[in-house]
Amino acid sequence: MRLALIGPSAPxxxxxxxxxxxxxxxxxxxxxxxxxxxYRRLYPSLFFPGRTQYEPGGTDDERAGTGDATGVVPPATxxxxxxxxxxxxxxxxxxxxxxxxxxxxxxxxxxxxFVAITSLVHRRGVPMIAFCHNLEPxxxxxxxxxxxxxxxxxxxxxxxxxxxxxxxxxxRYPGRxxxxxxxxxxxxxxxxxxxxxxxxxxxxxxxxxxxxxxxxVLFFGYVRAYKGLPTLLEAVAHLPADVQLVVAGEIYHHDAxxxxxxxxxxxxxxxxxLLDRFLASAEVGCCLRAADVVAxxxxxxxxxxxxxxxxxxxxxxxxxxVGGLPDLIRSGETxxxxxxxxxxxxxxxxxxxxxxxxxxxxxxxxxxxxxLTWDTTAAAVEELAATVSAARGSW
Length: 395
What we know:
- With 395 residues, the protein is an alpha/beta fold.
- It folds into 2 domains: 2-184 and 373-394, Glycogen Phosphorylase B (Rossmann fold, 3-Layer(aba) Sandwich), CATH 3.40.50; 198-371, Glycogen Phosphorylase B (Rossmann fold).
- Helix content is 40%, strand content 17%.
- It has helices spanning 15-29, 60-64, 85-95, 111-123, 144-152, 163-172, 198-207, 229-237, 256-266, 281-289, 306-312, 325-328, 343-355, 357-371, 374-390; strands at residues 2-6, 33-41, 77-81, 100-105, 128-132, 157-160, 178-180, 215-220, 243-248, 272-275, 293-296, 316-320, 335-338.
- The strands form 2 sheets. The protein has a 7-stranded parallel beta sheet, sandwiched between helices.
- α6 (163-172) links the parallel β6 and β7 (178-180).
- α3 crosses α4 (111-123), α4 (111-123) runs parallel beside α5 (144-152) and α8 (229-237) runs parallel beside α9 (256-266).
- The longest helix is centred in the last third of the chain and has 17 residues, at 374-390.
- It is globular, with a radius of gyration of 21 Å.
């Protein structure tokens, strides 16, 4: 099939851009003609809270971690301007002749572009699949939920990554196909992997400037309000003094000074390490291997790309039982699930995970290798695209 994949790609940074590149490569490996259409402007600088929208250093393939895609799928064409209507017509023209278009959705900011492009590709006989990383924004946006519902109503089919969001879409848009695909897992590369055992953990920590610690918990990813880092800080205060917390990710909610002050208030300042920056792809594997357990203390969630990464690296995950996280983590087998906003329960689960980290981590890695593959994801998208393409005759 010919598929237009519309979404951010390298050198744009972040999990969705990396997802786009890996999905494109997986679809190409299954024999599909993939037309990759990326953004030439993702967010206007006024609306972007971070320091840069681009991956630090390296080639585009290295930035996105998609070196294996070279020669399998062509580079993405940066056509789309999120606030440029003329570019929306160019995107639709680039998708002409495809069996289906796939638009990666995660925020109502992109609703005008999505609605316009969907209308234009429909005129060309191309069905539109909304690949929903998040149905609705995590943080409040004026009229955001209403705008998202109206915009997504133009799609012919949907991909989501949690059973809870699949249920929402099936109720909201009866009769339209919905594919629920768990976020794939991929073991990130690590420059210290040639060694084995404790030296890898120690070498990775040293490379990132993390002080030695007998036991280490990792919070990984952008620090945003819904991710519940304050709850994790309170939980760490309940844990023994040999447990270190590493927070690795650019801070969007409050700032580093706020979290340092909170750690000081809780009496754990000497046990909390803040890496307040976006980690380059080469550092991600190092960061995960320096940890013993990964914590996702989210207050709310749709799904998580961090949990599959941790599982692929053989790390147990302790997470809040919200959104799609229960779809990924088998409590007591690959990690633990706890109620959100409950520091005592979170501390208890982290303690149990640290005590049984090797067994839980091995089970997590086996689960990720068995069920969370890119080929499985590409096959599901392929099946959905074939369904909507076959239905074009009924339009």
